Amino acid sequence: MPPPADIVKVAIEWPGANAQLIEMDQKRPLSSIIREVCDGWSLSGSEQFALRYADGPQLYITEQSRGDIKNGTILRLAISPARAARQLLERIQSHGIDARLEALKELAKLSADPTFAAEFLNMEGIGTLARLVESGTHFGEMLAFTLTAFLELMDHGIVSWDLISLSFIKQIAGYVNQPMVDVSILQRSLAILESMVLNSHSLYHRVAQEITVGQLIGHLSNQEIQTYAIALINALFLKAPEDRRQEMASTLAQKHLRSIILNHVIRGNRPIKAEMAHQLYVLQVLTFNLLEERMMTKMDPNDQAQRDIIFELRRIAFDGESDPTGTEKRKAMYTKDYKMLGFTNHVNPAMDFTQTPPGMLALDNMLYLARVHQDTYIRIVLENSSREDKHECPFGRCAIQLTRMLCEILQVGELPNEGCNDYHPMFFTHDRAWEEFFCVCIQLLNKTWKEMRATAEDFNKVMQVVREQITRALAMKPSSIDQLKNKLRGLSYSEILRLRQSERMSQDDFQSPPIIELRERIQPEILELIKQQRLNRLCEGSCFRKLGNRRRQEKFWFCRLSLNHKVLHYGDLDESPQGEVPFELLSDKIPVSDIKSVLTGKDCPHMKEKSALKQNKEVLELAFSVLYDPDETLNFVAPNKYEYCIWTDGLCALLGREMGSDLTRSDLDTLISMEMKLRLLDLENITIPEAPPPVPKEPSSYNFTYNYS
């Protein structure tokens, strides 16, 4: 008979004594259980003790968190959080250097515990740590532990960042600006400054007075701290007023600074980790968001300076053609030229730029092309304006719609998504990367228009093909503008048609009844193969990011399925693993038999709890939760869509339910088509005798391995 749901069997340790094996009744007050444990070792003053986990982060157990205790958990009897906080506060103020160092080391570890942190902060411990830093008398390990404890304590959000003094900020900024400072101190100093900027408007201005982007760029050559440096740059960029943000963007756009990011970060001799990829993505998004003002600015048809830009486009395209005398003749000529330039409104092309987006940004792009790539601009305009077969590509209309499309693809004006790592190296290789990107794409559009032999009625079809060409090329992560051109050359209109046909083959081919019957016979085999692949991936395990912390520090946990498919093992990690994590390092587990269901998206408890994340569509699409007895949840946010599909499908397969992700449907169609082609190819090579016909054999088993890369 299984034990009651409110009873968990645990082991409790105490230094120098044999462990106690008890059945913990979760309905009993925790203080009563601690008193009983203390009595077992003849310890008096049970109110001075508490229970902590013996493994992992070794967090204190409270009435609120005790529900997380599982059967077989090893606990440890320890002094209470209040007592520990009081003792550590006394020790870090002692005169003995060694005692103070050990106290700060222990404090740095305990500060991550919310229960301990609340007690330490109630004793105004954060002020004590701040004064130790402000004194300037701590160096090396002692200072590193002090800063670590300070950062962990502030990260709980119990104390406001606005209480931080100016002298503390100056001291932390001083560590960042000093040429020879220990790496661990630099990392923590940069992280503290980042949290200040992100959590307090008033502190942003104080930090911005002490730290410049130029000083931070200097740290990017050090691979140990470059992630922290870019994170602070992004924080300053994100919180800066509009006028200051443009100034920062100009600094970042300078060639020597951009080259440092390119050569020491993107092209460095170490692979880029997930956190650095995210920071590069954030920097890319914030840089492109500077285009939002122009994108949302309508052209004023009565503004002569703005109209002069259109006149310049006409002049560059048709240079050498003298203006006729007489107002009417000049108007007629201008109308003809604007039609040849491909504007929708031939009489007053300024009206073409009154729609936002793309607003004035489209005109900026066109002017850049005309001035910087003049030969290309003239060629595109003249070769289309001279055609009389209705296949001319309207340059003006195309440039405006292309600008809008590029803004949508690169999400100009949208805030960065939490957990997204989708940065493009090529945008860090050129001082005017946006404009150059447009110039490449407008040439692609003109080329695709000709390949499709399009007319004005085909405009939207051409734009759809061009969007597909651009998104496919970007997905290949070209490392430079030139490499983007090469990728796009390989994605001609005929190649797009071939790719579309290949991708549709599973839906469009083999529609005759015998083939449909064969498909239905094959499908269970393929589904079983996909199911085994999903379960094998769960056995290998995956690393997930913890999203609860306010600052962008890498905190991870790992989850994997036991080889016999009976237990889910999981546990916290200090850093992202390079390979498979052994089961013995994963301290927590859930029997598969206890799992009741799998929730996804907005139905997940952690998506309902975190209002900030509810607004983040991308995180919402990657969230899933495992519900298990008794009414507990294990919450996930997958690193990408592929891992999300693998895990949700695998968990459904584990529970004997249908695998319904887009990835499974795609894999099913692809693998069925492959197997059917193989079997039909075998049939084509069979010589059928006239008589008697042979007894048909059962189809061969599906015996090749599908490898996901």
UniProtKB/TrEMBL annotation:
<keyword id="KW-0472">Membrane</keyword>
<dbReference type="GO" id="GO:0017124">
    <property type="term" value="F:SH3 domain binding"/>
</dbReference>
<keyword id="KW-0053">Apoptosis</keyword>
<dbReference type="GO" id="GO:0016020">
    <property type="term" value="C:membrane"/>
</dbReference>
<dbReference type="InterPro" id="IPR011993">
    <property type="entry name" value="PH-like_dom_sf"/>
</dbReference>
<dbReference type="Pfam" id="PF11841">
    <property type="entry name" value="ELMO_ARM"/>
</dbReference>
<protein>
    <submittedName>
        <fullName>Engulfment and cell motility 2</fullName>
    </submittedName>
</protein>
<dbReference type="GO" id="GO:0006909">
    <property type="term" value="P:phagocytosis"/>
</dbReference>
<keyword id="KW-0729">SH3-binding</keyword>
<dbReference type="InterPro" id="IPR006816">
    <property type="entry name" value="ELMO_dom"/>
</dbReference>
<dbReference type="InterPro" id="IPR016024">
    <property type="entry name" value="ARM-type_fold"/>
</dbReference>
<comment type="function">
    <text>Involved in cytoskeletal rearrangements required for phagocytosis of apoptotic cells and cell motility. Acts in association with DOCK1 and CRK. Was initially proposed to be required in complex with DOCK1 to activate Rac Rho small GTPases. May enhance the guanine nucleotide exchange factor (GEF) activity of DOCK1.</text>
</comment>
<keyword id="KW-0597">Phosphoprotein</keyword>
<dbReference type="InterPro" id="IPR011989">
    <property type="entry name" value="ARM-like"/>
</dbReference>
<keyword id="KW-0581">Phagocytosis</keyword>
<dbReference type="GO" id="GO:0005737">
    <property type="term" value="C:cytoplasm"/>
</dbReference>
<feature type="domain" description="ELMO">
    <location>
        <begin position="305"/>
        <end position="474"/>
    </location>
</feature>
<dbReference type="GO" id="GO:0006915">
    <property type="term" value="P:apoptotic process"/>
</dbReference>
<dbReference type="Pfam" id="PF16457">
    <property type="entry name" value="PH_12"/>
</dbReference>
<dbReference type="Pfam" id="PF04727">
    <property type="entry name" value="ELMO_CED12"/>
</dbReference>
<dbReference type="InterPro" id="IPR001849">
    <property type="entry name" value="PH_domain"/>
</dbReference>
<dbReference type="GO" id="GO:0048870">
    <property type="term" value="P:cell motility"/>
</dbReference>
<keyword id="KW-0963">Cytoplasm</keyword>
<dbReference type="InterPro" id="IPR024574">
    <property type="entry name" value="ELMO_ARM"/>
</dbReference>
<dbReference type="InterPro" id="IPR050868">
    <property type="entry name" value="ELMO_domain-containing"/>
</dbReference>
<dbReference type="GO" id="GO:0007015">
    <property type="term" value="P:actin filament organization"/>
</dbReference>
